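Backbones bend. To wit:
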Amino acid sequence: MRVDILSCVAAAIFLIPVTTSGQQVGGDLSVDLSGQWQFRTGDNRAWTMPEPNEGEWSATRVPNSWESQGFEDYNGFAWYRRAFKLPRQFEKKEFVLHVGRIDDADEVYVNGMFVGSTGTMPPGYRSAYDVYRKYPIPPGILDPQGENIIAIRVYDEIGDGGIMDGQVGLSVLEVAEADIIRLDGRWSFRTGDNSDWSAIETSKEGWSTVTVPGYWEPQGFRGYDGYAWYRTEVFVADRDEAVDFTLALGKIDDLDATYVNGVEVGHTGSVDSANISGDEWQRRREYKIPHDVLRFGEFNVIAVRVYDAMGGGGLYEAPYSLYPQTMSEGALRKALKGLLERVKG
């Protein structure tokens, strides 16, 4: 019961995106980013960051449909962009980015790094026009003192398009419990399959980086189906006594086998046979890690072997975290109280 409660708390805190129909769930923004943004129709991934001599951008109001601002009857791809600086009192905080309700599908980048998407771009188009977007920004992406760039790629199939309504800006992400080690953020990634990639030591040649959670398709691997691997390193502090941990890996599309320090700690489905029964991509992963597998007071390597048959692939929905199974009932109650306060807003 203890693990189930904590899992629910972590899932609600780190879920990406929060799917509410057209309205924000609770809370005021710490940094309001509504108002004037840059806008242009068309599609070019270089637009995630400003480049010299890249052409004309229009000023547009956010939130508001682009049809109401001079782009009548336009359907297709468009981009929004906004520069901002963090107020000094928030320099050491972590944030959730709110971008309201977008018609129809979106991909969001902060300082050129992918942080999340909702809906599906063509091909395989799927609208998410009624979903309120909230994307936690992984640590290390925001510049606490300099200029930051948010870029939003949007696809609209029919009718009004763009960032339609809802709050747009940043709210402070409150971490519920210090013992919960967050694993969302930048992971090493490569397509293909090699059993050696589960080892503690492996060559860094041929690896790129992606944001977790998030499908791999909008992160430079569009149209790829098959095997791929993820890797990350996490420091686990030394403890007075041996403690088992739980590794939460959210949802993975489709199959996985997961390793910690070269030891398999769990799997969902049969990756070796690539045999999908139908609902593996919807199952939430939680794998128990025996204390003798972890290296306390050192960095630990988490490696995830994934097989995707079709559509979106990879580590796509939070929570991604590591936590001790000996968390006290008081800590659980504190985390649960924090969750309820956030949901009620």
In short: The CA atoms of residues 120 and 126 lie 5 Å apart. The mean pLDDT is 85. Helices lie at 2-14, 329-344. The longest strand covers residues 162-172.
